[in-house]
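Supplementary material to the annual report.
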Amino acid sequence: MSSEIVAFDTRHIAGYRRMAFKRAIAMVTALVVMLWLVILDLSIGPSGMPLSDVIDAVLAGPDGADRATATIIWYLRMPQSLMAVIVGMCLGIAGLQMQTILDNPLASPFTLGFSAAAGFGAALSIMFGAALPLPEYLITPIAAFAMTILACVIVYGMVHALGETPEILVLCGIGVLFLFQSLQSLLQYLASPEILQQIVFWLFGSLLKANWTSVTVTSLVALACLPFILHDTWKLTVLRLGDANAASLGISVGRLRRRSFVLIALLTAAAVSFVGTIGFVGLVAPHVAKALVGEDHRFAIPLSAMVGAVILASASVFGKLISPGGVIPVGIITAVAGIPMLFLVIYARKRRSS
Amino acid sequence: MKTQTLAIDDLHVRRSGTDILSGVSCSLTTGQVVGVIGPNGAGKSTLLSAVAGQSGFSGTVTWSGSGAGSGYGRRPESADVGYMPQSCKVSAALTVLETVLLGTHERLGWRVSQSDIARATDILAELSLSHLASRCMTTLSGGQQQLVLLAQRLVRQPGLLVLDEATSALDMSHQISVLMLLKRYVVRHNALALMAIHDLNIAMQYADQLVLIHDGRLIHQDAPENVLSVENIRRCYGLDVDLVARPGGRPVIAPLARATA
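Predicted assembly:
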C-alpha cells in the first residue's frame, strides 16, 4: 500500500517537473529568438551591412578600429535595437500585471489612461517646452513621464478613497484616460500645423527617438521595479484565483493591487516617455505568454517580457525592410501586426479548449 | 493532544443599518465537524467570514486564546485558519496541482520543493482527484473546482477550517466523502471544521454538532438529533417534517408539506 503511494507521488512530481521543463524550453526559445532578432535588427539599416560585419563591430566595441561601422552599429542602430527590447519587455510585464490585477483579458498598460497622460505631457512640452532651460531631447520624455505619474497619482488617490476593486480601478482609470485625451485633443486643436505634425509623430511611437540616454534611463527604471515584481510573483498567481479566494489565502488583495498599479505606471512611463505610445505590445504579449506557459507568474512574467521584446524587435526589423529609411513609426506596425497575432492566440486557445 | 477551543462571544454584525448577526455566542472544541445550518439569508456566511477574520464585527472571537478581535474590527489574520469563501469560480489557466500548491504560496520558493508537491498530491489522492492533477482548472465542473479549492485549504493543514459552501455543488456521494474526510482530518490534526451545510439530512447524519442560525441569531447549538427537531425546523424553515427513526442511527428527515402561516 505504502509503496503504491510512493510510486504515485513520484509520477506526479515527475509530471510537474516535466511541465516546468517544457516552460523553461519555451522561455529559452523566446530568448534565442529575441537575441537573433536583435542581431538581425542591427544588420538592417539604410547603409546595409553583412551579418559578419555586424558581429565583428559588436565584438570590437564602440572604439573599434573601423570607425564608420562602429559609429553606425554602436551609436545609431544599437540604441534603437536595445530600446525595442527594453520597451517591449516593460510593456509586456506591465500588460500582464494589468490583466491580472484587473482580472480582465482586454486590459493593457494603456487601459487606465497612462498613454493618454504621456501623450498630453509630450504635446505640452512640444508646444511650450522651448521656454524651459533644458535640452530639447530631455524635455519631452520628462514631461511624458511626469504626466504618466500624475495620472497614476490621480487614479491611486481615487481608488484609495473609493475602494480597491477592479471595477472602481477601471472606472477611475477610464475617467483619467478621457480627461487626458481631451486635454491632448485641445492642444492638438490649438497647435500650428508644424507643431501638430511633431505631436502626431510622437504619438505614433517610433524607435528613431532612441539614444543611449533613453536606453540607460529606461533600463534603470525597469531594474528598480524588478525586485518588487519578483517579490509579488506568487501573490499575483494566487490573485488569478479571484479576490475572495486570494484574501482567504492570506493575501491583502487591495494592497497588492495598489502596489502592482504603481509598478505598472512606472514601467509604462519608462517605456513610452522616450519612444512614444507603442500600442498592442502590452495587450498581445501577455496573451501569447499565457497561451505558452499558463498563468504561473514565475514563467508568465519573464516570457511576457520576452514576447514583448520579440514583437517590438520584429516590428522594427519589418519596418526597416518595408521602408529602408525607417520612416514608418514602429507603433503603427505593432498595431497592424498585433491584430492578426491576437486573433491567432484567441483561435489557438479556442481550439485547445474545445 | 491538547484540545483547542473556538470561543465566539456576543458577535454582532451590522451592514447598511441592518443587523445581520445579533449576539451570537458559542464555544466549540477541536476534534469535531460542526455544521452551520439555517435558511437562506439567516447569516451563516456572515458568521463564517467573521470567524475567519475576513470581515468586520463587534464582539470577540477567540481561537485557543490567541487571535482575539474585539470592538468593531477584524480578527487578526491567522495562518492557522483555512477559510473557503462562497462561490469561488476559477477562470485561470492553472492546472489542478498548481492550484493546490498555491494553498501554501507563502512557503513556495522559485523552485517548488519535492515535499510541497508530495503534500499537494497526497491531498488530491485523499479527495480522489489524482486523475485530474494535470487538468486545467477551466475545464473542470463546478463540483470538481469546489473539491480542488477544498484541497487547497487542506494542504495548509489549518487547525480551524471554516468552510462556506464546501459541498454545495457536490452530488450526494461526494458530499458524504468530503464530510468523512473532514471527520478523519479533524481527529488526525486535532482540528475544528466549521462548515455551512444546506442538506439537513447530510447535516443530521454526518456532523458531530450543529449550530442553527435564524434571522441573525443562534437558535440552538447541540448534537444534530437535538438541533434538528420538528419544532426547530418548522420555526426556522417554515417546513413540516417527519423524523423517521432508524435503528442504531440518527433519524431521517422527511419533508411533509409547507407549514401554514
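Chain A touches chain B through 29 residues (CB under 8 Å).
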